[in-house]
Write a structure and sequence with these properties.
Elements lengths: L20 E3 L5 E3 L1 E5 L4 E6 L8 E6 L5 E11 L4 E11 L4 E4 L10 E5 L3 E7 L4 E8 L11 E6 L6 E6 L3 E8 L13 E9 L5 E6 L8 E6 L3 E6 L7 E5 L6 E6 L6 E6 L5 E5 L8 E3 L8 E4 L6 E5 L3 E6 L12 E4 L4 E6 L6 E6 L2 E6 L1
Antiparallel strand pairs: 1-2, 3-30, 4-5, 5-6, 6-7, 8-9, 9-10, 10-11, 12-13, 13-14, 14-15, 16-17, 17-18, 18-19, 20-21, 21-22, 22-23, 24-25, 25-26, 26-27, 28-29, 29-30
């Protein structure tokens, strides 16, 4: 990791990254930061996975009213750092999460999913910049009551599977049908069927994530307001495994599986100043606490290409940790970056693993690591 993310000192994040140019090995200049300012406060964010759509992201607004927005942007010029808006659409309420279809080969329809009051699937026409609602997936058809979705995950091995988490204590696994030969552009609507719905926790469920373990299709975990991390297997839903319980029953907000070693996952508690690293082989005993944060942790993202690197973000710092010494205590991050505002989102690009994106206020920054 060689970028201008400042090397962290022994007394916390000493990031001195500033928007400057560094010479690369070829003698030219390359930018280490690209900044985009949206016309609204940002929260949800996702990197596109398609190889033909580099530097493309979807950004969700955080406006405290019904009418919100999602923008699709792409870095248009690497030298000037200019971003182009490639599409935009209205969204009811702020998006709690956005994900692009996990299609790393570029063979599936160009789909985007959002969660909020419901799970919605959108189709992006890159040429016309038009974004069309393909499907609204509602699991509460018999009720006027809407149980908002806190998060969701799109299965990387089987893109027909999406799992959602809700404040009504349940997780729902949806099976998508695109009604088309993959690769054809003239698609019929995407439809969804509930594969299973289960009561996952005693209280609200705040996050859900599929694991790459066991073939990468059937195992997922969730976290929630009851302070537990629970692991499920779609083939044996009659029981679950408690991986971790917070001693003080503090709600756990986020859950993130290691992309290269499916034994490890990370979680964080509400108002917690640390990231908790867990090993499913040693339930209920964290293997590490990453404690260098001076304010509560707002986001975590594992490196897509490395089993021992993870990025965490708090009030104004993004920190990158090397955890290969675990279970020995990891005292300091290896890299740190100080932002100009409270970072509320961090995402590590799977297609371009030397780039991380963070959001704060109405700004999105891409950082080279």
């Amino acid at each position: 990791m060689n970028s201008l993310m400042g090397h962290a000192g022994h007394h916390g994040g000493g990031g001195i990254m500033s928007n400057q140019m560094l010479p690369n090995a070829g003698g030219g200049k390359r930018k280490e930061i690209y900044k985009y300012e949206a016309p609204f406060t940002l929260y949800a964010m996702a990197w596109s996975n398609r190889p033909d759509k580099k530097y493309r992201l979807a950004l969700g607004s955080f406006i405290e009213e019904y009418s919100n927005k999602v923008q699709i942007i792409q870095l248009n010029d690497e030298e000037s750092g200019e971003f182009k808006v490639k599409g935009a659409f209205e969204h009811p309420y702020p998006t709690t999460k956005i994900l692009w279809i996990p299609d790393t080969k570029g063979v599936c329809p160009d789909l985007l999913a959002t969660s909020g009051d419901y799970l919605r699937i959108w189709k992006v026409n890159d040429k016309s910049s038009e974004v069309k609602l393909e499907s609204l997936l509602n699991n509460n058809k018999n009720s006027d009551f809407c149980a908002p979705l806190t998060s969701f995950d799109w299965n990387e091995l089987d893109p027909n599977l999406i799992g959602t988490s809700s404040i009504d204590t349940t997780c729902t696994i949806w099976g998508l049908e695109t009604g088309q030969v993959i690769g054809r552009v003239d698609s019929n609507n995407v439809t969804g069927m509930v594969r299973t719905q289960l009561i996952a926790h005693d209280k609200e469920v705040y996050d859900i994530a599929f694991s790459r373990a066991g073939g990468g299709r059937d195992i997922f975990a969730s976290v929630g307001a009851d302070g537990s991390v629970r692991m499920f297997d779609l083939r044996h839903l009659e029981h679950s495994t408690i991986i971790y319980e917070d001693q003080n029953q503090h709600p756990l907000l986020r859950l993130c599986w290691n992309k290269q070693d499916s034994n490890y996952l990370a979680t964080m508690a509400i108002d917690g100043l640390e990231v908790i690293i867990l090993d499913v082989r040693v339930p209920c005993t964290p293997v590490a606490f990453l404690k260098n944060h001076s304010a509560c942790v707002n986001g975590i993202a594992w490196a897509p290409h490395s089993s021992c690197h993870i990025c965490s973000a708090d009030d104004q710092q993004a920190l990158i940790w090397d955890i290969q010494q675990v279970p020995r205590q990891v005292d300091d991050p290896i890299l740190a970056y100080k932002a100009d505002g409270e970072i509320n989102q961090v995402q590590w690009s799977a297609g371009q693993p030397d780039w991380i994106a963070i959001c704060y206020n109405n700004s999105m920054e891409m950082l080279r690591v």
